């Protein structure tokens, strides 16, 4: 038969077990609003039975219960899916935001946009063609052309500023990636130590998961769990976090190919905010190139025709625009800025000749081979339309990905989230169990005391 103290041992173990269960439940409730927290569950097991010889033979007597561990409730599949969608969603959001800025820079349609200034300048050329000897028409044309130059230069400068801001954000994002990588490595080390000691580092695992999720918003990644509890993190072919070491992501990058390099290995960036920034830089570079093509062709076509004209001062071969570097140095020629009478309206110089002005005015609708068979107005309108369409595309992608991410998060919360009703129910259950174990201990104590008194004389 078991000793008189066996029941006391069983009750004592039960008290310790249910006290631990209450602590776990309280920990869950305390962290109901903690980001990334995974609800925990106490794993309760039976202690090995006590084998005793009785009149009927060898008999097994239960010895109570013990804490087998604290289980962290997670769904690895949902976590992995969340990282994928989060990375792509962050890329789409970054692209959408950058393209919306470009839309604001272009300001189309609007009273202060390039398209309106272009139409106004061509209207002035038409007016000059109808009034070739009118000084007022030349003053008006010079003013409208200067306005066009000002707006084009403004768009160019703001695109250059946007490019510089995006490059600054790339540098900051790479720094954030490396900071998170260092944090994950530090958590890995602590998790390894606690795991080796036989502990359940559940809270540290949650903190590491939060860092991984933050990292996924910045860059594409994949992870590899190790037997010692650590987690390796890879960005394409770059090991960011190894089993025992952190390797920073290189800061040298090529936005055109969406890669970073340390001089030896080239790593492709395909997701997250960093990929979105690279895509944004490529988009801005493409828009600037298209703007430069528009400016160069506008300058070339108008200058070619204007050089053939004879102005009111009797001179010819004068450029209307000057500059050689796209939108960066576009300006009215020095002669036109100095004297509007240097603007040529006709090829003969006769008072009623407006042939040159008319030919220039017709450039508004004239297909040009250098612009793919589009006119100047159509080419610029295509640039504006392209920005709008790409912005809308990424907006739609973002909406789909945000909806999917929300759905995945709801599924994750149904598994790992803390349900207060369930926790309160568990609290009452464990409280009652604790009280019952305490009552058993009290009764056994009294019984043992009586036995000692009875047989101890």
Task: Please give the share of residues in helix.
Answer: 55-70%
Average pLDDT across residues?
A: 93
How many domain units?
A: 2
What is the total tally of β strands? 12
- The run of helices and strands is HEEEEHHHHEEEEEEHEEHHHH
Biggest sheet overview: 3 strands, antiparallel
Number of distinct helices: 10
Provide a descriptive summary of the structure in words.
This protein is mainly α and 457 residues long. The protein has 2 domains: 107 residues, no CATH class; 321 residues, no CATH class. It is built from 10 helices and 12 strands. The strands form 5 sheets. A 3-stranded antiparallel sheet has the order 5-6-7. Strands 8-9-10 form a 3-stranded antiparallel sheet, with no helix packed on it. It is rod-shaped and about 140 Å long.
């Amino acid at each position: 038969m078991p000793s008189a103290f066996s029941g006391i041992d069983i009750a004592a173990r039960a008290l310790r077990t249910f006290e631990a269960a209450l602590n776990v439940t309280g920990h869950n409730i305390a962290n109901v609003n903690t980001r990334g927290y995974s609800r925990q569950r106490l794993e309760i097991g039976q202690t090995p039975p006590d084998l005793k010889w009785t009149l009927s033979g060898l008999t097994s007597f239960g010895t109570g219960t013990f804490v087998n561990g604290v289980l962290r409730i997670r769904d690895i599949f949902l976590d992995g899916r969340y990282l994928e969608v989060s990375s792509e969603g962050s890329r789409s959001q970054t692209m959408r935001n950058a393209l919306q800025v470009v839309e604001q820079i272009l300001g189309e349609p609007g009273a202060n946009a390039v398209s309106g200034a272009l139409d106004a300048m061509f209207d002035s050329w038409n007016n000059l063609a109808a009034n070739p000897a009118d000084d007022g028409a030349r003053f008006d044309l010079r003013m409208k052309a200067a306005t066009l130059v000002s707006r084009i230069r403004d768009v160019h400068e703001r695109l250059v500023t946007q490019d510089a801001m995006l490059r600054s954000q790339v540098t900051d994002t790479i720094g954030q990636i490396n900071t998170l990588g260092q944090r994950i490595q530090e958590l890995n080390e602590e998790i390894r130590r606690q795991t080796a000691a036989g502990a359940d580092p559940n809270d540290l695992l949650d903190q590491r998961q939060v860092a991984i999720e933050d990292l996924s918003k910045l860059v594409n990644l994949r992870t590899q769990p190790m037997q010692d509890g650590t987690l390796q993190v890879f960005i394409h072919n770059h090991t960011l976090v190894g089993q025992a070491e952190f390797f920073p992501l290189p800061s040298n990058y090529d936005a055109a190919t969406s890669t970073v390099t340390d001089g030896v290995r080239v790593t492709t960036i395909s997701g997250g905010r960093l990929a979105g920034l690279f895509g944004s830089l490529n988009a801005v570079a493409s828009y600037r190139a298209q703007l430069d093509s528009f400016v160069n062709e506008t300058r070339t076509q108008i200058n070619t025709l204007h050089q053939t004209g004879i102005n009111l001062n009797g001179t010819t071969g004068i450029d209307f625009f000057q500059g050689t570097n796209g939108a960066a140095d576009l300006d009215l020629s020095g002669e036109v800025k100095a004297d509007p009478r240097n603007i040529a309206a006709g090829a003969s110089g006769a008072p009623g000749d407006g042939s040159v002005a008319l030919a220039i005015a017709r450039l508004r609708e004239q297909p040009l081979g250098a612009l793919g068979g589009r006119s100047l107005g159509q080419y610029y309108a295509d640039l504006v339309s392209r920005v709008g369409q790409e912005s809308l595309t990424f907006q739609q992608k973002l909406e789909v990905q945000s909806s999917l991410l929300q759905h995945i998060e709801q599924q994750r919360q149904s598994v790992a989230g803390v349900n207060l009703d369930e926790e309160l129910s568990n609290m009452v259950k464990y409280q009652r169990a604790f009280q019952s174990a305490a009552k058993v201990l009290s009764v056994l104590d009294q019984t043992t005391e009586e036995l000692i008194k009875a047989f101890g004389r």
